[in-house]
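Why does residue order matter? Because the sequence determines the fold. Keep that principle in mind as you read this record.
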Amino acid sequence: MRKLLIGILSVLLMASCGKRQDSEDGLSIFKYNESAGILTLDPIYAKDLPHIWACNQVFNSLVAFDDKMNLVPMLAKSWDISEDGLVYTFHLRDDVLFHADTCFKTPRRVVAQDFVYSFNRVVDKQLSSPGMWIFSSVKHENDQYAFKALDDSTFQIELSKPFPPFLGILSMTYASVVPKEAVEYYGDNFRSHPVGTGPFKFQYWKEGVKLVFRKNPNYFERDDAGERLPYIDAVSVSFLIDKQVAFLEFIKGKFDFMSGIDARYKDELLTYDGQLRQKYEDKIELITEPYLNTEYFSFFIDPNDPLGPDRARALRQAVSLCIDREKMLRYLRNGIGEPGTGGMIPAGLPGHSPTIGYGYDLKRAQRLVAENHLEGYLLQLSTVADYADIGKFVQSQVEQIGLQCKMEVMPPATMRSMRSNGSLQFFRSSWVADYPDAENYLSLFTTSNFAPAGPNYTHYTNPKYDKLYDKALLCNDLQERTHYYAEMDSLMMQDAPVVVLFYDEVLRFVNKRVQNMGSNPTNLLDLRRVRIDAKKSL
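Structure:
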């Protein structure tokens, strides 16, 4: 297969050595493929990266995170938080216009009432937004939420109880501002004709084929030299389902950007230590950095487990100790990622510690199995096809300490259903930060979040852990809150409800004609400052 792929690539590279058409009608266009497809451009339904990337070009929120994960103003130029941490008052910019569109007689300015309307859409039960949870800490009664427009330029939110990560949550795409006129004018078709305030405005969408955004000439942000953003004229999104075909098109120069890497062509692009192969160095730029994504396997903790709590804990610890994570990353992921020897909090977030988890200690794992009479115990491992290679590796590691391990590969939808109702014993999991605060990871293990109502699929419960979590939520001092986070993560890892495998990396392959691409730990696609050099081409 690899020889065949190399042969195909050679033909494609020779065929594409001529000059690429870098613009259409003189426009600089950034092109990428979205193999997962896009179903809607309404931001209240932007629950995954494909939808977040598209909506991020069209919409803005009150605040945002920069590439260093610093919280910065966006549509709010400043804000105040009351001493009790309950009232957030935002002072809005007065130079932000909604996109010019037929739903308006003339483009109009964004005012505080637009946020009241937009946020009420998120919590409207009839709309069933998956982002409703972001306002769960907002004070409400009979579905009336405490969103207030004090005047055109002052917007206020009142919480029912302090929640320090709340400000960061408001950076999420769910919290984008939309105009009432557009939603009412387009009705159900707002999903396919969005109107926002972002750097690009909607132009064209043939679903499953092509999506085009054009530069917003009235965008409010400027660079340090006073030039209005964005620099490029348009964004074009294609929808090739086959990732290998999309990869070949990227190599031909038809796309400017590719995020992540598929097992079918990882060896073609990367060496075993994660470096870009030399033959592509003059054509492609590789950008990597820590990604706020923890990859792990979860145990379902059954209170009626015949092993009893102590032996069950020893089993979980032994499995965590027997996995050679460095070997796994080198041979299965070409060195992409950092071994998961810390807890759930990934590298790059306050509270992360690289030593509170489990390193590779085969002798200690074997000793735990022997001391607790676990030899021959059958562990049922469940995973999905994309992670079958990692599942097989974990299976082989577990069997070398005297346990049996049977692996089952199932469709993602089946796995989601079965893990929710506690039908899986040991299963593949991952968590990408919804917002860059360790609370987002640690909430996965609170008793109040038991699945199916919440995301605690392990059913891990520890009263001390729950108390520390409650204390952290009442703490507005980040340094003190980080201390609670680290203590919680360490406590949970001693009980080992999860086997942390690795902390992922953002991996971006970029056509050398693209400048200022940048990256960030949440893998947000930000094209505001991207430039395209038409003289360069693959």
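The longest strand covers residues 284-299.
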